[in-house]
Write a structure and sequence with these properties.
The chain is of the alpha/beta class. The chain contains 18 helices and 16 strands.
């Protein structure tokens, strides 16, 4: 298949989960593929490093991966053979409340529903259909807009998913159920009164019951390392330490796929793009940023609620109303003293993350786009609120504001870790309204980042779908959408 007049058939720029997925798909199709990464280590948002003290391994960006096992593409790859092991906490997520109790997302759907008392049936009515029909929904939820293979289950899902999280919250009568729902929906990184914010809450809850919210043993770098190992085993080539700022820097190839957001796409290839496409990219909207803290701890986080001490992920925000207010403030450019905090404690389940008897913890809160406000004390106060004595067990810390995150990973524009706001206006038209969102206006040039459908999350589906488009357009190679035996 390889054209001897070209250095490579395809070049993929950027080695995040989508870049790696695109490179693998192209290489599996029999092409000669070069994967280029600006940093010295591949991974994008999948990197693990000793950020605080020696022996304490912290995930620099993402830490817990609800969509990794749910990804049809990742599930089709032999990543376990290449060293990837997932750890599945019995409690995927806990949401502590001021009274010392916690709302809990258990692995079991029925156990979660039963824990919500009078809201049991409301929860089941909302989440159980997603769990039961997941194999028929996943193909549409993790793909570009197209006519669904199973329109009826998707239509029923959409009746709830297209609503705002605030509208759905009104169905619950207990504070505990409303809080659990708010914590799930706030992963959307936008005001909870926005339409479609119910979708992420429904999907993450259902995935927790189907696959759990897994933690990769050894850190998120393990996912990237397994993907890289598989790519190389197929004959792929990786070049690190090569920061691309212009297409002319790349060796000759028939096609190029960029794991970048619209802003970098314009910087790298803007002169080669049409005026209307450049205009569309200029009007692409980015969302809120994040402020992140990693801690080295002398012992476990002393949460009052025992369920929180046993959970892989903890949502800190107390009531639905507090969370909604926090997200609203951040979206309006305001700093809140009681932010919604997403927290993970991987060392509770993975002893490789810290020296014996010690622990790590990871957390971030949403902040205004581009904010440089130091949120360390505010986040620590929020943790202390639900875990008295937390500050006393801190022996090291590392922080990153939105600008520092953007320097670390150029895709995090203004600290936006989703590659652009995922609201109803950019749900399927990211990064531009086109027949194929992965094609640019330049023939042979594609975008494969989370700025394309289905958006943010460690699932690799943006890269996979972009590769399918490029293979079809440039090489007349048609590859089946995976996995056909799961409702695709």
């Amino acid at each position: 298949m390889h054209n001897k007049n070209l250095a490579y058939d395809a070049i993929v720029v950027g080695s995040g989960p989508n870049g790696l997925s695109a490179a693998i798909a192209m290489q599996r199709a029999g092409l000669s593929v070069l994967l280029v990464e600006g940093k010295d280590v591949i991974g994008g948002g999948l990197r693990t490093s000793e950020l605080t003290l020696p022996g304490f391994k912290h995930d620099v960006c993402s830490a817990v991966h609800p969509m990794a096992l749910a990804s049809p593409y990742f599930s089709s790859l032999p990543l376990q053979v290449h060293g990837l092991t997932y750890i599945d906490p019995n409690i995927p997520a806990a949401h502590p409340l001021d009274d010392g109790t916690a709302a809990v997302l258990y692995r079991s759907l029925s156990e979660t529903a039963n824990s919500l008392g009078t809201d049991k049936q409301v929860y089941l009515d909302l989440i159980e259909p997603v769990v039961l029909n997941w194999s028929k929904l996943v193909g549409s939820l993790l793909s570009p807009l197209r006519f669904p293979k199973y329109p009826i289950p998707l239509a029923k899902f959409g009746l709830n998913a297209l609503q705002s999280a605030t509208m759905i919250s009104q169905r619950f009568s207990t504070e505990k159920a409303r809080a659990l729902w708010g914590g799930m929906a706030a992963h959307s990184i936008q005001p909870l009164h926005n339409l479609t914010t119910a979708a992420i809450g429904m999907v993450l809850s259902a995935v927790g019951h189907i696959h759990g919210w897994p933690i990769p043993k050894g850190g998120s770098q393990s996912i990237a390392s397994a993907l890289e190992s598989y790519f190389i085993s197929l004959g792929g080539t990786v070049q690190t330490g090569f920061m691309v700022s212009d297409l002319n820097q790349l060796p000759p190839s028939k096609t190029v796929l960029l794991d970048v957001t619209p802003k970098q796409l314009q910087l790298i290839a803007g002169k080669a793009l049409s005026k209307i496409y450049n205009w569309q990219l200029e009007n692409y909207r980015y969302g809120m940023g994040v402020f992140k803290v990693d801690w080295a701890l002398s012992e476990m986080v002393p949460f009052k609620a025992k369920e929180a001490r046993q959970a892989g992920t903890i949502h800190l925000g107390n009531t639905f109303e507090e969370i909604a207010q926090s997200e609203q403030y951040s979206s309006k450019g305001q700093i809140t003293k009681s932010p919604y905090v997403l927290m993970a404690q991987p060392s509770v389940f993975d002893s490789t993350r810290a020296p014996s008897g010690k622990h790590t913890a990871w957390a971030y809160c949403h902040v205004p786009h581009g904010s440089i406000t130091d949120m360390t004390a505010i986040i620590e106060n929020q943790v202390e609120r639900f875990a008295p004595g937390f500050k006393d067990v801190i022996i090291g810390k590392h922080t990153m504001n939105t600008q520092q995150l953007n320097v670390y990973n150029p895709n995090y524009i203004g600290g936006d870790i989703n590659g652009g706001i995922l609201d109803i206006g950019q749900l399927y038209t990211r990064p531009a309204l086109r027949y194929s969102p992965y094609r640019t206006s330049k023939k042979g040039l594609y975008i494969c980042s989370s700025s394309t459908p289905p958006g943010g999350g460690v699932h690799g589906m943006c890269g996979y779908h972009a590769a399918r488009q490029a293979l079809s357009d440039m090489f007349n190679i048609k590859i089946a959408v995976v996995p056909e035996n799961e409702g695709w």
